[in-house]
Amino acid sequence: MTTETFDNWIDGAFSAPSNGERMATTNPFTGEVWAEVADDPAAVDDAVRAARVAFEEGPWATMPASERARLMRALGAALTRDADVLAAAETRDNGKIIRETTAQAKSLESYLDYFAGSADKLAGQQLPTPSPNFLVYTERVPKGVVGAIIPWNSPLSLLVWKLGPALAAGCTVVVKPSDITPVTALMLAERAGEVGFPPGVINIVTGGGAVGAALSSHPGIDKLTFTGGGTTAKHVARAAAENLTPAVLELGGKSPQIIFGDADIEAATNGLLAGIFAASGQTCVAGSRAYIHTDVADEIIDRLVARAGELVLGDPASQATEMGPAASDDQRDRILAMIDAARDEGATIAAGGVVDAELGGRFVRPTIITDVDNQCSIVREEVFGPVLAIMTFDDEDEVVALANDSDYGLAAGVWTNDIRRGHRMARKLNVGTVWINTYRNVSYMAPFGGFKQSGYGKDNGLEAIDAFLQTKTVWVELEGATRDPFVIG
Ligand code: NAD
C-alpha cells in the first residue's frame, strides 16, 4: 500500500512542517502504515497567529452572522456529499466499523445546521436601569481564538461538536486531532476552504502530545475545548490555569447500566450488549459496569454470554462486521492488562478475556466479567475496550449507592417498566446523562458532558455555544450628568 502524506492546514492552505518531522498513522486492522502527517509543535504558533488575524482583521471579523451560518451549512453539505470518503478514512484510521463511521459522517451536516441556525439569534439584552437616564444593554461577543484538542475514537464527530458552536459564536479555531486519527480533520478543513471559509478561521495542526501541549499552553488561545482522557486533561487544565484560559473538558467514564427485575429482558440485554461492545467499547459512554437485580441476573448473564460469543468480529470496512479491532497495539495491551488484573483480583471471566485466535492479535474478544465488586479495579477504572463487569443488587437504594460510588459521572442507563422508578433513578444518579430504557443516544439538540472526574462544560445543545461567547455590558448616560462620579454605583 502506498503511504499518503498530509501537511498541516494553516491560514487556508496546506503547510509543510518547518522541522521536517512526520508521524505515521496506521490502519489497526491490517497493521499497515497508510499515511504520514506533520509533527511540528512550532506550527501551533503559526496557526494561532493565523487564527488571531482572521478573528480580528479578516473578512470573518465583520461577516454578518447569517453569512457565517451560510458557510457552515455549505460545509455541512460538502461533508454529506463526501461522507463515504470520510467514513472510509476514519475506519482506516481507528478501526471503527464502517456502519458507524458512515452514520457519523452523514450526521455532521445536521450538527452544523443546528448551530448555524443559532448564529444569527445570539442576542444580548436591554436591562432595567437604576435611573431612567441610563440605557444599559449586553452584547454576546465571541471569545476569540479557540484551541480544540480531539481524541481518536470519534474524531470527526467530536471535532464538529466543537466547531459548530465555536463558529456559530464567531470564533476562529486551531484544532489538534489525535495522533492516531489525524487525517479526517485535514479533509474537513480542505472542504471548508472549498466552500469559502476565509483563511485562518479553521486551522489544523497534527502531531503528538507535544503539539497538544504547545496548543494548550499558548497564550494566544482565548478558550480551550478538550475531549480525551483524565490524565491528559490535567496537563491541559494546568497549562490553561497558567494563562487563565477557560476550558471545557469532556473526559472518560465508568458508566453504570442498572437493570431492575421488572425490565424488558430482551431490550435490556440488547442495551447492555450494544452499550459496551459497540465501537469495541472504545467510547466514552461505554456502559462498562452492570448492576442486575438478583431476580433476573442469571437469565440476563446467560443471554449476554451467549450473544457475546456470536458477535461478528472482522474487517471494520465490511458492512457485516459488528466489532472491529482495538484502535492501536497500545490500546489492546492496556485492555488485556486490565483483564489480567481483574483475574488476579479473583474475578471470573465468563466470556472472552483473550485476543481472537483467528483474527490476528488486534481483536480483544467481547469480554464479560463476574464475581467482582465495587472495589475491583475493573469496576473503578475506565478500560476503553469491550469489557463488561457485572454485579447484582437487591434494592433501589443499594444500587443507587453502588452506581454513584465512582470517580466518574458521565452517563448511566436504567432499565425498568416502572415509570416512577425510572424518573426517581434519573434524579438520584450523579451523572451528566441518564438514559431510561435506551442507551448511547446523543444529539446536537441535547447538552452532553460529565460530572465529577468526567469533566466540566458541555458539548451540544444551545448551552454549548455559551462556552464560546462572553457578555459585554454597555452603560450609556442619556442626558446631562446626574450622578456623583466619585461614588461607584
Ligand atoms: P488522550 O487524553 O490520550 O488524548 C486526547 C488528545 O490529547 C489527543 O489529541 C492527544 O494527542 C492530546 N494530548 C496528548 N498529550 C497532551 C498534552 N500533554 N497536552 C495536550 N494535549 C495532549 O485521549 P484518547 O486516548 O485520544 O481518547 C480516549 C479518552 O477520551 C477516553 O478517556 C475517553 O473516555 C475520552 N472521551 C471522552 C468523550 C466525552 O465526550 N466525554 C468522548 C470521547 C472520548
Instruction: Describe the largest sheet.
Output: 7 strands, mixed
Bound compounds: nicotinamide-adenine-dinucleotide
Tally of contiguous helical segments: 16
Average of pLDDT: 97
CATH superfamily membership of the largest domain: Aldehyde Dehydrogenase, Chain A, domain 1
**CATH fold-level assignment of the largest domain:** Aldehyde Dehydrogenase, Chain A, domain 1
How many separate structural domains? 2
The CATH class assignment of the largest domain is Alpha Beta
* CATH architecture assignment name of the largest domain: 3-Layer(aba) Sandwich
Amino-to-carboxy terminus distance: 71 Å
The share of residues in extended strands comes to 15-25%
Strands in their spatial order, largest beta sheet: 15-16-17-14-13-19-20
Count the beta strands: 23
| Global Rg | 24 Å
Helix content: 25-40%
- Helix vs. strand class: alpha/beta
Gross geometry:
globular
Which residue ranges are poorly predicted, with pLDDT under 50 across at least 5 consecutive positions? none
Question: Could you please describe the fold and organization of this structure?
Answer:
There is one protein chain. The protein has helices at 43-56, 59-62, 65-81, 83-94, 98-119, 155-169, 183-195, 209-216, 230-242, 265-277, 294-310, 329-344, 377-380, 396-404, 419-428, 463-466, and strands spanning 4-6, 8-10, 13-15, 22-26, 33-38, 126-127, 134-142, 145-149, 172-176, 202-204, 223-227, 247-250, 256-259, 289-293, 348-351, 367-370, 387-393, 408-409, 411-415, 433-436, 451-452, 455-456, 469-477. It is of the alpha/beta class. Strands 15-16-17-14-13-19-20 form a 7-stranded mixed sheet, sandwiched between helices. Strands 10-9-8-11-12-22 form a 6-stranded mixed sheet, with helices on both faces. The chain has a 3-stranded mixed sheet with strand order 1-5-4, covered by helices on one side. It is globular, with a radius of gyration of 24 Å. Nicotinamide-adenine-dinucleotide (NAD) binds at residues 149-153, 158, 176, 178-179, 208-209, 212-213, 216, 227-229, 232, 235-236, 250-253, 284, 382, 384, 410, 450, 455.
